[in-house]
Every structure is written in C-alpha cells, then in structure tokens.
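User: For my dataset I need records formatted as: sequence, then structure tokens, nothing else. Please produce one.
Assistant:
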Amino acid sequence: MHATKIGSMHIIDGARQLLYNKIQAVAHYALLHELKQRAYSAQPDVGSSIQNKLEHSEVFGMKKTIPAILSLFLLFMFGCATTGGYEQASSVAQLQVSFAESGWNGKTIPNGQQCKRFGGKGSTPRLIVKNIPAEANAIIMEYSDRDYMPMDNGGHGKIGYKIKQGTSEATIPSVPGHTFSLPEGFFLVSAHSNPSWDTAGAYMPPCSGGKGNSYYVTIRAVYQPASKDQKQKLLGMAKLNLGSY
C-alpha cells in the first residue's frame, strides 16, 4: 500500500509539473504576441523583427522560451526607443525581393558562402528588388543572424546601394565578405559587429559553424537627403530569408 501511495504521488506530481509547463508556455506565448502588437503600434520595423522571432522560436517546446522572451523584451525596449535614423513615410511600401542567382534558395546557405573562419569565401547574394517607391534614391541591406541576438538586426553588416529616383526595379550586385572595399555604387552604413570572431569588413557571411542558425536580410528603400542633418525617409521595406547554416 505504501509503495502504491508513493507511486500515485509521483504520478500526481508529474501531472502537476506537466500542467504547469503548459500554462507557462501559453503565458509566454501570449506575452510574445503582446510585445509584437505593442511594437507594431510604436514602430512597425521592430514589430516585424519580433514576428520573425515568433515564427522561428520553439515556444511550446520550452527550449527557447525564456531566451526568446528576454531578447524580444530587450528588442522592444531598445528598438522602440530609437527610429534607427529613419523618418517613416506615411505609407511604407512592401518591396518585392528575390534572389538573382540560382545557388540561393532561402532554405540552406550555399556551400562556400560561409565566413572565412569556417573555410568559406562568402559574399552577399545578388538581389532583384521590385516595387521601389519613386522617391527612393538608395537601397539599404541589413544582414542578420536570427538565432544569435548580438548579430541580429544588421549585426552581419549594413550596406547601401545608390539608385536613381524613379527606379521601380533594381538588381543589387553581390558584395564580397570581410572587406571594406565595396563595388561601385555601394556605400557602407555600418560594418559587421564582431571582428574579434572573424575578419573585419562591411559584411560577415554566415558564421555559426554549421549550427543551423537562420540568416536573413532586411531590405529598405529610402530617400537620403543631401544634408546629413536631416533624417533618411523610409519608403519601402521587405525581409528575405537567406537560409540556415
């Protein structure tokens, strides 16, 4: 009888723990969505970044729940505190972005397109950008690692490409990684943020060492005023998955 009672208690404790875990997971998931909605209201770009993390986090598996909430909370708090140097247009267009080369499929980073540290000679993929607002005179690309917060939100480098106003479609050439020597038409917005991990440069190719991290690029169509005292205007935006490595 004593053994039966102990066994029953273990079953009850296990059921309680399972129920607690499920309730905790649902609460966390609700919090993530609340953060997303609040961020969308305050700053659409931050809300979009939170949405990406929601779609790629194992919330109900509980493996990434706490780190996801912490990173999203910090993203919301600090992301909403700054506009990132952009004045947002009254209506931000949805850009249409696709790869201009067959080696990239958005699922897996092509072989050799990783960083130098892991034997690669990566470069940014050529992109086709459509539905560019007529006022735009530059396209900004921000390269990110969705699964490693220090290299998210443009941590792999932010690069700009000049276009003529009135351009509705543009093909963005490739830019080699680990260098500050950019092809004609490009300009540096900010270099990749971890030169202690691999060679410095405008762009760091995927560099997780094959851990399956998810990489993406944020594309913005902007108007850059002649005066540096004025903010750039955000006119269009899109995100494109580069793939996992």
